[in-house]
Amino acid sequence: xxxxxxxxxxxxxxxxxxxxxxxxxxxxxxxxxxxxxxxxxxxxxxxxxxxxxxxxxxxxxxxxxxxxxxxxxxxxxxxxxxxxxxxxxxxxxxxxxxxxxxxxxxxxxxxxxxxxxxxxxxxxxxxxxxxxxxxxxxxxxxxxxxxxxxxxxxxxxxxxxxxxxxxxxxxxxxxxxxxxxxxxxxxxxxxxxxxxxxxxxxxxxxxxxxxxxxxxxxxxxxxxxxxxxxxxxxxxxxxxxxxxxxxxxxxxxxxxxxxxxxxxxxxxxxxxxxxxxxxxxxxxxxxxxxxxxxxxxxxxxxxxxxxxxxxxxxxxxxxxxxxxxxxxxxxxxxxxxxxxxxxxxxxxxxxxxxxxxxxxxxxxxxxxxxxxxxxxxxxxxxxxxxxxxxxxxxxxxxxxxxxxxxxxxxxxxxxxxxxxxxxxxxxxxxxxxxxxxxxxxxxxxxxxxxxxxxxxxxxxxxxxxxxxxxxxxxxxxxxxxxxxxxxxxxxxxxxxxxxxxxxxxxxxxxxxxxxxxxxxxxxxxxxxxxxxxxxxxxxxxxxxxxxxxxxxxxxxxxxxxxxxxxxxxxxxxxxxxxxxxxxxxxxxxxxxxxxxxxxxxxxxxxxxxxxxxxxxxxxxxxxxxxxxxxxxxxxxxxxxxxxxxxxxxxxxxxxxxxxxxxxxxxxxxxxxxxxxxxx
Length: 679
Ligand code: ADP
Ligand code: SF4
Known about the structure:
Largest sheet: 8 strands, parallel, barrel
Shape: globular
Bound molecules: adenosine-5'-diphosphate, iron/sulfur cluster
Mean pLDDT: 96
Strand order of the largest sheet: 3-4-6-9-10-11-12-13
Strand content: 15-25%
Number of helices: 23
Number of strands: 27
């Protein structure tokens, strides 16, 4: 199958200053949790994107000086010759696939606590550190000498970028890092010719652009990453006026939003192409090519953006993580094979934790070098053998799919009529519809494989499994929520559990509707508590969301959806109670103890929904494990359990577990490489 000619505009080469991009697919700079700490992982991950057809592949933010240090988050770095060598590994790998390599030269300012280097961060003013860690230090306002040195620092980093082989060199002027702060009408109150009027506020950015342009002249393109207002009529930093003065200076504009909640919005709150207006606004003000993101996963939306001239490149971070081969699939007329990003922001969460990114949809993400996994290639079956997968949730579906790709005869049995497991229920909650893509992509792929036998509506017990003629059994039977309040905070069931008015999460997920006063006790801390609260509030219940944590839905701080989650809860009238455990629910009263030893609070309620830990459905696995001799006597070889039935976790962990068990069947455990700096 070949490319549908309709999509030709996406594959037209285009010049960016002195270089030419082979097509319109542009992997914008995105965090990877790899950076200078894990350069081989980074090079291999970016190389797969280039192989997958992205015409431009960029680094993550790349530190230009020791004062730009976000330990424990590993940025890339171009501070010395060793860094040049490390990043050469990436540019060589990207060039080998015919793509251009871009580097995003970065200096943080007050966002950098410099925990490793112990440098004082410079910025437009002395501002408190406000990165996620919130270290109690401030930046130093730059002196005139600092401003001169800063241009030289950028210049030297740009020269190293050329040595490292980059084709596109960025001046990074957004995300409230130093250069953005100089542009900002709110933050920049300097009186030295670099602040005050818009002409003065753009001065440093202009000087840095000119300095870098001199260095890269004719050898690499110069790009500027820049924020436009997320709300068209609200421009507190006066970024549009500043853009006007800079519009023709770079070779390329990379446009983002000035509100990170929307720029990197989760699909719960932000839809595909949400940046469209901001990108179009920039495009209307410059003759230079413009790239912008929008979690584009639909080839038709991409085409509309390019064909209408609204933007010159389809920028992507998450869609390129979920499917590094997205461009090649469109090119080959295989758009329905695209593994669409679900907008869960789990990738971002792991970077937020200082760890390499991973992806709910793409289990090979981050394992390209460490485990040698490729998103589109997998070893053929080791023998002409059959595998039974029990349970068709995320883990079972992915295991069956990957085993099917390998060529085994796969039997997939599921107790319910519909395949999908937890995703079926959770995707019905407010904002979570795109999570169904975890199921749908896998079902689409399974349907193309002739060697899969599907058995829905089949709850298997050990006798039924042993009666089947298979060499391998993978148990992926999932987990269920506890209804007794035991979780991270409570080790014992609360008083009154199992009594009147206590409603298990499973009942709600199965469609039970509640009205009256409902207390949700959320000791899970991720999306489910807030999603249930929003669902019940929309149905008219008076909801109180209680958590032992300092803030509701605290883990969503990592997925960059916390602020919008709280905004939605407040708008829905949900009462938020923090730092409270659940002591008891008796006679229509929830007693909530203070985690800091203060007085117990009483809340009258008709219903109490406890959300704590989960229990793996491992009964089948334990029964089979006890009858291993019988299994082996009948020709059975391997018996595994994966996903939530082994250890309850997030959907990404279940998909990964399913993929891994499929990769390793007949191969032994994968040898894992430990990354090290190349120098
Ligand atoms: P995971 O996230 O680990 O994939 P899920 O809970 O999403 O787990 O999916 C587990 C699936 O296993 C559910 O769809 C459930 O109906 C199914 N299941 C559980 N026990 C059995 C069984 N004995 N036989 C067949 N299917 C089962
Ligand atoms: Fe998309 Fe989620 Fe994968 Fe990130 S982790 S790329 S948001 S599917």
